[in-house]
Amino acid sequence: MAFAPVPRASVSDHVFGQLRDAIVSGRYQPDETLPGERELAGAFAVNRHAVREALRRLQQLGLVRVSQGGATRVLDWRVHAGLDLMLSLTQSGDVLPVATLVRDMLEMRACVGIDAARLCAERGDPALTAAVVRAAEEYAALAPDLPRMAEANIAMWRLIVRGSGNTAYLLSFNSLVAGTLAVGDVPPDSRAAELLDVAGHRRLAAAIAAGQGTAAARHARALLTAPVTTPTTAPSGREARA
Predict the structure, then answer these.
(1) Which of 11-25, 52-66, 197-211 has the highest mean pLDDT?
(2) How far apart are the C-alpha atoms of 1 and 32, rounded to whole Å?
(3) Do 171 and 179 contact (CB within 8 A), yes or no?
(4) How many angstroms separate the CA atoms of 84 and 38, rounded?
């Protein structure tokens, strides 16, 4: 297949991006062998060092494996890749639609958040659950400033996930809010139904502080599955729900 020559700035990034897209989109199938370094360097019009660096990053993502003898074999990303691939794909709209990534990340966030809320209520120590209540009040004080509420929302959920005592949930949360993703890169005003439900956040915090795991999970579900809408102007001076 033909590759486009790349700009001299960040040449390794461009090589990496084009190869990643070719693999994830299926232009290179699992178990297929990539062209050699020399051939790729010629196709991209870059030096072999840039190609070697790009291949190293692809291997870290679980997209390829360098076989004995130096051949680079394509792996099935559905089997070998992790959340780092999702984070990488948010910077590229030509493989998987960004809307699909947003939906998938929000669904994963809901799954993690609902159970983390339950566990935080059941496992969280008094100091941490009290911090969740304070975070909910600090969050409420920011309404209706959606951008600032979105930041405070992450801070509150970070406490909840920490309180769950589940390291896998904590690492998943870090990926869900990392870099450009920031919870699926959803604009705050399109999450108004969730973010402006100040009373719902207070109910969640109160259930956690009271050690009510089932109630905490129910309130978390109501928040994290709220409709995502097209951006609108946020209501001013009042909460979305009483």
Answers:
(1) 197-211
(2) 13
(3) no
(4) 28
